[in-house]
Amino acid sequence: MNKRKEVLVLGFALFAMFFGAGNLIFPPSVGINMGDNWLLAGLGFLLTGVGLPLLGVLAFTKVGELENFSTKVSKFFNNAYCSVLVLVIGPLFAIPRNGSTTIEMGVLPALSNMDKFTVTVVSSVIFFAVTLLLVIKESKITDIIGKFLTPIILIILLAITVLGITGDLGTPVHKVESGMFAFGFIQGYQTMDALASVLFGVVIVKGLKGKGIEDSHEQSGYLTGAGVIAAIGLGLIYFSLMYLGARISGVENSAATTASALYIAEATLGSIGKMAFGICVAAACLTTSVGLVALTSDWFSRITPFSYKTIAVATCVFSSVMAIGGVDFIIQLSVPVLCILYPITIVLILFNVFGLENELAYKAGVYITLLISIVETLGVTFKIGAFTNAVQLIPLGKDGFAWLVPCVIVTAVAFAFSRKATK
Questions:
Q1: pLDDT tens digits, residue range 257-291?
Q2: What's the Cα-to-Cα distance from 125 to each of 287, 356, 381, rounded to whole Å?
Q3: Contact, 306 vs 159, CB < 8 A?
Q4: Contact (CB, 8 A) for 178 and 41
Q5: pLDDT by residue (tens digit) across 41-71?
Q6: Distance CA 400, CA 179 (A)
Q7: According to a count of CB atoms within 10 Å of the terminal CB, is the N or C end of the chain lower?
Q8: pTM value?
Q9: How many other C-beta atoms can be found within 10 angstroms of the C-beta atom of residue 127?
């Protein structure tokens, strides 16, 4: 087996798995909000948007199966965590967001003279009807579309980047004085790639095992090389789009998240380029939606008495209704959930990557992270002053990382106590 070739193929596969609509619409928004401080925010975004997803895939060289990802806490916790994970990247947020992105970037710009609500409802129904048909029929159309679309989108992005950097797009303006890194770090949550990596990891590791690569160290070697390739590709796209977003930070345009990417496309490629870009992204959303509906249906058909098709229908119907609210509505709903789920996912990924075997330390680190994340999110979401004030007393609490120091301390203390008790 040619290892270099396999690593290259795996690297492009990883890139394609992570590359989606969320990777295109959030980086420009970060640049617009941060202005001339986009680079520091970009580093934070890169950690959660690229670093964590790759570590998530590497974690599965240690655990092998999704059913083992967090069983050191408890089997019930693992099932609950994985179910919430599937719901978040499934019908609650990611699937309907793909539908909304399709409508806002591919449909509404072409039908701007028609009633917006009517177009949105009809488009949502059609999008998820097609999704359901492709899921149930197990068609290979999405694979074919994906293979052609990804190169086309990358070519369009390259043209946008070159023209945006060399052209007179604008100059980054000064907008914020502090909190840039934390803003970018938390905005990276919205890509949901770290959450998806927990599920992608299973696919990648099974693929390596199918090729006879059983040793976890050897698997890590393949995934590390592939990860570098995927990280370079995603990183270049993120930084390019954030910089272009920063260049239009002084321009008045729509506050909608999808509008920034369309504005940049039109400013660089003209109205035809904007339309082509929107249609390509919309079609890419369809392939992602099909994959996520299939994943959701497979998981819940295994742990509930409902059939694969029943869950697929319910997922598409629910997602269709959610998608009508629009991308920004879905983002607003997802923020509190992601602010609880992401710190837990970060801790679980790191514990698995570094092979923490001490169950007491494992449980203590996970539970303290969960507790603080819930308290912090409740304080911010429901304006509970006592919760917010308490969290801000914790080191890094004011920067959005209240869970970090307590997790490290509690895990270390639990580890030391467990070792001492054992001796």
A1: 888 888 898 889 898 888 888 888 888 888 888 88
A2: 16, 46, 31
A3: no
A4: no
A5: 999 999 999 999 888 888 877 777 777 889 9
A6: 9
A7: C
A8: 0.88
A9: 26
